[in-house]
From TrEMBL:
Residues 28-363 form the Leucine-binding protein domain. Pfam families: Peripla_BP_6. This is ABC transporter substrate-binding protein. Coiled coil: none annotated. The keyword Iron-sulfur does not apply. The keyword Translocase does not apply. It comes from Undibacterium arcticum.
Length: 386
């Protein structure tokens, strides 16, 4: 057995210091995550977690980051904001994570924000709500285009089609509430009047009553549903059952093949804004995002034998921005990582091209969205309207 007994104090201190540095260098970089693996938002959270696990495994196989492996510590909030808050507290206080990626939903993300802000832990949300990053919060960032951007993309298309009076059906979740607020805020900009407005709960199994009221509104020309998870599919089926012969729009909250599966033939002719990932192979060869989204699609499908969704893409973008920022910081110092995330410029991701700043903790513009229409169970690119 090796003994330190014969070493002089100064030499002993030097040896112990070197040993401590060696141990520290081998410690993993801890990334915490709170995602919705169960509950109404499960089909958003499932691909997010799978993406994080897949790419962290790849990064570790290639040597890790700064010579250290990444350890992912994740919890399922069950699509409930109060659980997201509790697990965030655990990540910060017990797991001692260096950074947090999570918040599948706007409600979950908003419940996490006070904790990360107080503790000073960098947080990258995968949810869409504007309130997550407006006003800008020191430790909070996001990678999903906002609900305001989604509303603007939809309204630009409506304007092009001569639609000026619509009905709005919004979910009572944080995502739906924020979406309804932003939809109302930008409607006049595009000459749109909301002549009927109804809500539904994320666990509701029928929206016939709400849609019947909207159908009867005077002069109505189209309907816009703002929600995520299973609710929008329920509304889509009810819409067709009521034989409402008007254009139906959804938000980016349904940009997943799962929405088409849940809705079935009722999804045909539905239009919505979505990231380039959904139509990777339809992008022109010179599109800056094409190499990124096609490579992600290939990698994800090879591993999981299932279709990609924009939500898994948000997991990819959040992780890559985090990893790039840790490399730039050269350490896991939280302030240095935070500053590096804020300085993200020209990062080409699955959601768009990110250019963040001190006042913009998302860094995407309206070009991040492509307008799609569903036909025969497939996504189709609609000519750009912005």
């Amino acid at each position: 057995m090796f003994s330190f007994s014969y070493l002089k104090p100064t030499i002993l201190c030097s040896v112990l210091a070197v040993m401590h540095v060696g141990v520290s260098a081998a410690e993993p970089i801890k990334i915490g995550s709170v995602v919705s693996i169960t509950g109404p938002a499960a089909y958003l959270g499932d691909p997010e977690l799978k993406t994080l696990q897949l790419y962290i495994e790849k990064i570790n196989a290639e040597g890790g980051v700064l010579g250290r492996k990444i350890e992912l510590i994740h919890y399922d909030d069950g699509s409930e904001a109060n659980k997201a808050n509790g697990f965030t507290k655990r990540l910060i206080e017990s797991d001692k994570v260096d950074l947090i990626i999570g918040g599948t939903t706007t409600g979950g993300s908003m419940a996490m924000i006070p904790l990360v802000e107080k503790a000073g832990v960098p947080f990258i949300s995968m949810a869409a709500g504007v309130p997550i990053i407006e006003p800008a919060k020191k430790w909070v960032f996001k990678v999903a285009p906002t609900d305001r951007m989604a509303a603007e993309k939809v309204f630009a298309d409506m304007k092009k089609r001569g639609i000026s009076k619509i009905g709005l059906l919004a979910e009572t979740s944080g995502f739906g509430q924020s979406g309804a607020k932003e939809t109302n805020a930008v409607a006049a900009k595009y000459g749109i009047t909301i002549v009927a407005s109804e809500t539904y709960g994320p666990k509701d199994t029928d929206t016939t009553a709400q849609l019947t009221k909207i159908k009867g509104a005077p002069g109505i020309q189209a309907v816009f549903v703002f929600g995520a998870g299973q609710g929008p599919a329920v509304a889509t089926k009810n819409y067709r059952q009521l034989s409402i012969d008007l254009p139906l729009y959804q938000s980016h909250g349904v940009a997943s093949q799962e929405y088409i599966k849940l809705s079935g033939p009722a999804a045909d002719k539905v239009r919505l804004p979505a990231a380039a990932l959904v139509i990777a192979h339809e992008l022109p060869a010179n599109d800056a995002q094409k190499p990124v989204v096609t490579e992600y699609e290939r990698t994800y499908k090879d591993r999981y034998k299932s279709d990609v969704s924009t939500f898994g893409g948000h997991g990819y973008d959040a992780l890559m921005i985090a990893v790039n920022s840790i490399k730039k910081a050269g350490s896991t110092d939280k302030e240095k990582i935070r500053s590096a995330i804020e300085g993200t410029k020209g990062y080409v991701g699955t959601a768009g091209i990110f250019n963040m700043s001190a006042s913009d903790h998302m860094g995407l513009d309206l070009s991040a969205f492509r307008l799609l229409e569903i036909a025969n169970g497939k996504w189709n690119l609609v000519q750009s309207t912005n």
